[in-house]
Amino acid sequence: MKISNKLALKLWVLMSIFTVGDVFAQNTTPVAATAVVASCAQQNPQNFIQGTVDQVLNILQADAAEMTSNFPKIQQDIANYLQPLIGIQVMSQFVVPGPLWSGASVSDQTAFQSAFFNYIVNTYSSAFQQYSPQQQSIQVFPPRTWQCGQTNNVQVNLLIVNKANSAGNIPISFILMPNANSWLLIDFIVSNVDAISNIQSQIQSMNAATLAALTVAISNHNASPINN
């Protein structure tokens, strides 16, 4: 069959349009399909714990000369650093019986949180007196379940390694709650002893009838020389 010049021209124009369209699609589709993935701003919980440990060790090193002569100063320096990193309001509600907490005024709750924070520092900071970088090292492990941006709590494990005898290793687990793009410490477990459960037992033994009375009992405990 013979094709006229006019028909051949029309076919050539149509083929050119389709060919140019294919080339255009091939060149532009990848650009159009490229998605901008938003970066996650949440801090890695392992880095949070590692940074906290490093800073506490820096404080101990800076105050090394006062380790035996003025340990309360070291306690205060550590407390000042740790205070914004600890979820003291959450921890307070963990350890105080529900009716005692809900029946208290806001001012009584605030006073308890302050005394309770000092109680934690006084109870556990004495362990820092035993730490020696010559005899021990600290390893911080990544959490098993964390995904950047998650809203549930995570656990970060740490091991204080006794360089001379592995039987003296001390495992510590930190329970962290998301706080904006960072974390708050709300519980910790030392050698399989849960801090919150341990403190709950101590608070129950104080037999306080009100939160205000409990605050007084804890403050007296903090002030006792045997606990400092």
Description:
The chain has two domains: about 1-35; about 45-225, Tgt2/MlaC (Nuclear Transport Factor 2, Chain: A). The radius of gyration is 31 Å and the shape is globular. Helices cover about 50% and strands about 15% of the residues. It starts with a helix and ends in a 5-residue tail after the last helix. The protein is of the alpha+beta class. The chain has helices at about 5-35, 45-60, 70-80, 90-95, 100, 105-125, 195-205, 210-225, and strands spanning about 135-140, 155-160, 170-180, 180-190, 195.
Give the helix/strand layout.
Blueprint (H helix, E strand, L loop, with lengths): L4 H29 L11 H18 L8 H12 L5 H8 L2 H5 L3 H19 L11 E5 L13 E9 L7 E10 L2 E9 L2 E2 H10 L6 H13 L5
Antiparallel strand pairs: 1-2, 2-3, 3-4, 4-5
Can you give me a brief rundown of this structure?
By secondary structure, the chain is an alpha+beta fold. Helices cover 50% and strands 15% of the residues. A five-stranded antiparallel sheet has the order 1-2-3-4-5.
Question: Which key phrases capture this entry?
Answer:
alpha+beta; Nuclear Transport Factor 2, Chain: A; 2 domains; five-stranded antiparallel β-sheet; disordered N terminus
CATH architectural group of the largest domain: Roll
Q: What is the 3D form?
A: globular
How many DSSP helices?
Answer: 8
**What Rg, in angstroms, do the CA atoms define?**
31 Å
* CATH domain fold name of the largest domain: Nuclear Transport Factor 2, Chain: A
| Biggest sheet overview | 5 strands, antiparallel
Low confidence ranges? 1-37
CATH homology superfamily of the largest domain: Tgt2/MlaC
